[in-house]
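Hello, quick one for you while I still have it in my head. A protein chain has come my way and I'm curious about its shape. I'm sending you its amino acid sequence along with the backbone structure tokens. I'd be grateful if you could look everything over and explain what you see. Here's the protein in full, and shout if anything looks odd to you:
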Amino acid sequence: MSASPLLALSPLDGRYSNNVDRLRGHFSEHGLIHNRVRVEIAWLKALAIEPALVEIAPFSPATLAELDSVVAQFNADDSAAVKEIEATTNHDIKAMEYWLKKRLGHNVEVMKASEFIHFACTSEDINNTSHALMLKAGRNEVLLPAFDKIIERLRALAHQHAELPMLSRTHGQPASPTTLGKEMANIAARLIHARDRIAMVSLTAKFNGAVGNYNAHLAAWPNFDWEAFNRRFIESFGLEFNPWTIQIEPHDAMAELFDAIARANTIALDACRDIWMYISLGYFKQKLKEGEIGSSTMPHKVNPIDFENAEGNFGLANAVLRHFSEKLPISRMQRDLTDSTVLRNMGVGFGHCVLAVTSMLRGLGKLEADPARLAADLDACWEVLAEPVQTVMRRFGIANPYEQLKELTRGKGITRDALRTFIAMLDIPAEERKRLSAMAPADYIGKAAELARRI
């Protein structure tokens, strides 16, 4: 069958394949096999360099260089060769072990130590370490930089429009004004916090044998401190060593990471909906793209498709990620295999997330504020100044200020002149009457501009 994207079962490998190419090296099956090879080679080297393990001789510089080259030069053809062996073994890790022995069969030093390839390991020792490395790279090299671009664009919008007044809407109704920049700063601040939580998750791995007790290790070398040795091995990858496990690493750190990503996605999804509404209200216009069509029948349309695409894909990402975080920490007794097929879909969750962030960034890049539209909306809502007027009335002890302004403004529009007439009759200091009378909705923004610039 043709490998055309038009025949792809998943849109991530079809319609959107170019958007998620950055993830393939990390989360494809080739990426998984490559990491397994990396871990197996590192384990063999670690055993050979340990003086107490006298039965395996240290490798020469030439052999060490060759072992490193196996990892560095590992390619899709090598993965295919491993898969060909797996067709016979029906076991992916054993196939990789056999491939390594075949690949290094000409090296006399390695062949003398060939039975130390995968020594005392259960498949999960290799797999859980590989999965942690995949997640670490996918997070640090793809996901966090993508969120950083969103944050920087929002920060730029916040600074650019820090002083541009905007009518707020609480419950969908006109409310105390803000600035367009302050609303962008709010989103940026939330995403900065969520992004930091993603980065802070310490990814864990175990390397302690079939049920987590070093049974095989101690059978071979009873007096060797395998726990300390294996801790150093895991930490050499920049991972946190987990000393208490069953056959599998319990995936709690994975669940923490997936939950953290989902929280960031939810914040971004919320932002997409708000910006969609601002576009609908005319507060933002979208830059036109030559040749692009908004509707098949309405030529005038410029649709907010990037934010809609982002919203949909943030939702898909979270559906997958939340299943991961709920399912993966659960395993019957010392091991069942239900996590295996789920873990193979990590790239799906990351893929929809990266696709969503890419779409959101593209949408943010098209935004142009419309100051005239923002000003017109504010000028049509003088009733929002009922809040500062009644608050000043409270300051000076006037009875029932809230009720007076409620009677004047609730459920009805109010003009500038009507509000000023009301202010002129207030028994408050003249300078306060003058200050309130001079205030327009666009002036009533509090610290919004300052807060927008601080992000």
Q: What stands out?
A: DSSP finds 20 helices and six strands in the chain. The chain has a mean pLDDT of 94. Residues 48 and 54 are 9 Å apart (CA to CA). The longest strand covers residues 173-179.
